[in-house]
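Form 7-S
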Amino acid sequence: MKNNSNSDDFLLIKKAQNGHEGAFNFLMTKYYPRVYASLYSYTKSREDSEDLTQQTFVKVWQQIKTFRGDSAFFTWVYRIAINLAKNHFVSSASKKDKLNISSSDIDIEFKTFTNPESDLMHDQSLKKIKEFIDKLPESLRTAFTLRESDGKSYEEIALITDTPIGTVRSRIFRARENILNFISKELDDEA
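Output:
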């Protein structure tokens, strides 16, 4: 992976590549909504999108050591997601041909099995990160939230906050840097 100091995810990716689940969980939390939205626009099915998103992050975890940084991390994750979606539809079409059973003929409820301890740790980590973000100075918090949560462009944020675009970029960079330092400290404390 290229050592790109401008990459906000560089530290997290490196830690995840070294087997640190907490770092990977943060990356998953960050990219999960975008992957789900991309898959939903592709599949038009909530259930398929949810299943495929989970499968995507399982595969990302299994293959994260192969990520070299030749593309953006999300681009790499997106390729995995779309390939899984394509394979899913090919496989589904094949199964339908072989089974020739309508889905309305089957009345089975499938449960999702999760690890409660892992879920709790994940939820606690997210809560700590959100609390940290809430404590950021207002100017950093606003710029960061508009960019990361609301998906606004730098130009839109500059207009909303009546701030020069260079200042917006600087605030978002500083907010990300503070958050990554906080996460790094938290991960080191857990280790």
